Amino acid sequence: MKINGTPTRTIWLAADGWAVEIIDQTRLPHELVTTRLESLADAAHAIKAMLVRGAPLIGATAAYGMALAARANSSDLALTVAYNILHATRPTAINLKWALNEMIQALGTVAEADRVATAYARAAEIADEDVAINSAIGDNGATLIQAAWEQAQARGADSVNVLTHCNAGWLATVDWGTAIAPIYKAHDAGIPVHVWVDETRPRNQGASLTARELNWHGVPHTVIADNTGGHLMQHGLVDLCIVGTDRTTRQGDVCNKIGTYLKALAAKDNNVPFYVALPSPTIDWSVADGVAEIPIEERDPTEQTHMTGKTEDGHIVTVQVTPDGSPAGNWGFDVTPARLVSGLITERGVCAASPDGLLAMFPERAV
């Protein structure tokens, strides 16, 4: 994607050929700041403190974290320690574990002297693979937006309205995004698409990140409070919902940013199609029941009790929005059961949110 006309990824190798650079997403939307990662500790901090976030980007960052670790010490013991440190940073997004396993598998097949070069090469492949997968998701999802636009035209509408939750755009991946990739493809194809952007408390990843990148790309959008989606659906102002996922079970349950489940319930009640866009590394084939089996991350309560914003004189400040002494709970994700999902948008096509639907897309996973 582009920032002010310049093609940009969320993570890339620095000019020196060994350090890794990222967009520090904690500084968005008001500041565009890049950060240099030089060590395993830097990569782990970037993931845990959410300088990078979004399941695919977490995976790519973890892969480069293993490369940085190998550069410091490529022994079996050191790589095991690095794996464990990175794996502990975020418990819910399955891409993290997937990428780490890919790195360990690649490094375990070569001599210790060759591991640094192998690590950097595999990390770069993981990043490039993510871009290709997300571009394909965009192509497949754009057909759904095209169909919704044709129906909207028949009603006399002048645009097709898509509601999304959290940030599943290119800032959540290496490039293109998952749920927002179809929107970019449709917009670039000339379809008049408008996006309802949930603010997505408590970290405001919709208002801060999705709105930021849609603004950069010139896609019409409106930021709304998290509780507005149901009202819009009741009044026919949402043609379809597209969200991302941090982990999808083999039966089609999806785990995404907290609040996604409520949007799916509202969509079901109002006959609004509810789609989930996911790259295949986000599928956890070892898990069936998402509600029972997926660990839900609980984050620092200050994300709920405090907010950061820009004052009228341009200063970035953090303020407390709750009373002194009031405790806060901060669950990061919820699970939307497969029965509420209209379809899964994958790099191989759109399928039903069911075991048979997923296996039709990925027959190699059949036991």
From TrEMBL:
EC number(s) from the headed UniProt entry: 5.3.1.23
Q: Does the keyword Amino-acid biosynthesis apply?
A: yes
One Pfam family, short name: IF-2B
The annotated site for Transition state stabilizer falls at C166
Give the domain of life.
Bacteria
Tell me which UniProt keywords the record has, alphabetically: Amino-acid biosynthesis, Isomerase, Methionine biosynthesis
The residues listed in the UniProt record as binding substrate, with positions renumbered to this chain, are R53, G54, A55, R90, Q205, N256, K257
Query: Could you tell me which InterPro entries the record lists for this protein?
Result: IF-2B-related (IPR000649), IF-M1Pi (IPR005251), IF_2B-like_C (IPR042529), Initiation_fac_2B_a/b/d (IPR011559), M1Pi_N (IPR027363), NagB/RpiA_transferase-like (IPR037171)
This protein's pathway: Amino-acid biosynthesis; L-methionine biosynthesis via salvage pathway; L-methionine from S-methyl-5-thio-alpha-D-ribose 1-phosphate: step 1/6
A molecular-function term among this protein's GO annotations: S-methyl-5-thioribose-1-phosphate isomerase activity
The annotated active site, in chain numbering, is D246 (proton donor)
According to UniProt, the reaction catalysed is:
5-(methylsulfanyl)-alpha-D-ribose 1-phosphate = 5-(methylsulfanyl)-D-ribulose 1-phosphate
Role: Catalyzes the interconversion of methylthioribose-1-phosphate (MTR-1-P) into methylthioribulose-1-phosphate (MTRu-1-P).
Q: Which family does it belong to?
A: Belongs to the EIF-2B alpha/beta/delta subunits family. MtnA subfamily.
> Keyword Isomerase: yes or no?
yes
Q: What is this protein called?
A: Methylthioribose-1-phosphate isomerase
